[in-house]
Design brief:
Helix content: 25-40%
Number of helices: 6
Order of helices and strands: HEEEEEEEEEEEEEHEEHEEHEEEHHEE
Largest sheet: 7 strands, mixed
Radius of gyration: 54 Å
Structural class: alpha+beta
């Protein structure tokens, strides 16, 4: 039995060691394969990055303001061969402008009303003159405003039935004292006669209007004329800006005018708080198209800067200062004053060659050797890039907006 056990054990030990060696061999092969795979992957990734890496360099340039001024002529008809001229459109308008002014005079005015005049005396029609005097029970004197026609009294059964007529009257004296309540009136011209008791008047309503009122003076009219003429030019500016289309460049001095008529709608002594002074005016204007002025301004600006300087278009501004105008000849002469920001042109190819394969963190140092930048930004498609790729994959451009 002991021999049998001995025969079995040795083969088992042999198999165990053989398996261990095979496992070691397999593990070595796996590590070798992983190393080779990692090496191949790393090299592939390296060459892929080399071929696809891209870097953008965005440069904000430094700006400098420049100003220029050149003579300019605006004409309506062709035939002018000056260097700087543009055509304009001719406009003609006729308009009435009104300016309001206060009346500064102070005038005492008279109370007015109506007296019902009774006739209990004559059976014949009578006519009394304008200005007939009536005295109220308070002693206030009023005068008839017109001639009075008095109808006859009617005789009925031996008795007179009084007739009456309503008479418009005005106080003899100005002021508030004439604003009396309803009253009875006598006719002082008949005092001491039979007529005195048989002709009388009664007011059914209060007399009104007496007091102080504003009135127009000659100084008011003179001042209105002077002030209206001073205000006219500013008024014409506002008027033309509303009338002229935005397609045109509006020149503040690009018009002339002629006063055809002027008058006030009140005269000296009129009892009004205010009045209007009217000016009828003919207006002539010559304005060029806005886009044509823009084009000329840009042409003059670019003509005056250096070849390596560029205009920042949105910064361009201009103004036409009129020196001479003759709208009878349809012509305006003046200066076109222009200003704008310039920046230097960029030689991007030269800069790309300078940046090629350089460290990205040196971009500020390198760019500023070739271009005066205000600000520089770098954008790369792989965050881990530390150097610029070949110049074909470097983009350099200016940001001016």
């Amino acid at each position: 039995m002991a021999k049998k056990i001995y025969d079995i054990i040795p083969p088992e030990k042999k198999i165990f060691f053989q398996k261990k060696e095979e496992e070691k061999k397999k593990k070595f092969i796996s590590l070798e394969f992983l190393f080779l795979f990692f090496l191949f992957f790393s090299l592939s990734l390296y060459f892929f990055v080399l071929k696809t890496a891209k870097v953008q360099v965005i440069i904000v340039p430094q700006f400098e303001e420049k100003k220029f001024s050149e003579p300019i002529t605006i004409v309506w008809q062709e035939g002018l061969n000056d260097k700087n001229f543009i055509f304009g459109d001719f406009f003609e308008f006729e308009e009435v402008f009104s300016f309001n002014f206060p009346a500064t005079g102070k005038t005492q005015i008279f109370a007015e009303g109506v007296i019902r005049l009774y006739n209990n005396y004559s059976t014949k029609k009578e006519e009394w003159k304008k200005g007939t005097r009536f005295v109220s029970s308070e002693g206030k004197v009023f005068l008839s405003k017109d001639k009075i026609v008095i109808p006859p009294a009617i005789l009925e059964k031996g008795k007179l039935k009084p007739s009456f007529v309503d008479v418009p009257v005005i106080a003899k004296d100005p002021g508030e004292e004439g604003n009396i309540p309803p009253s009875k009136f006598s006719i002082p011209a008949f005092l001491g006669t039979e007529r005195y008791l048989n002709y009388w008047g009664e007011s059914l309503e209060k007399m009104k209007g007496g007091g102080e009122s504003s009135s127009v003076t000659q100084d008011d009219l003179n001042q209105a004329q002077e002030t209206s003429r001073k205000k006219l030019e500013d008024t014409l500016l506002s008027y033309l800006k509303e009338k002229i289309s935005e397609d045109y460049y509006f020149i503040d001095d690009g018009f002339e005018y002629q006063i055809l008529e002027e008058k006030a709608d009140a005269k000296v002594g009129d009892l009004v708080p205010n009045f209007n002074y009217l000016l009828r005016v003919k207006i002539f204007a010559l304005f060029p198209k806005f886009q044509e002025v823009v084009a000329l301004a840009k042409e003059i600006f670019e003509r005056n800067v250096e070849k390596n300087e560029m205009l920042l278009n949105r910064s361009l501004s201009f103004q036409i200062k009129v020196k001479e105008k003759d709208l009878e000849k349809d012509r305006i002469s003046g200066d076109l004053e222009i200003k704008g920001l310039i920046f230097l042109k960029l030689d991007s190819e030269r800069l790309k060659r300078a940046l090629e394969h350089e460290k990205i963190n040196r971009v500020f140092e390198i760019v500023n050797r070739y271009y005066p930048a205000k600000e520089i930004k770098v954008k790369k498609n792989y965050f881990f890039l530390t150097s610029f790729p070949d110049r074909e994959r470097i983009e350099v451009f200016l940001k001016v907006d």
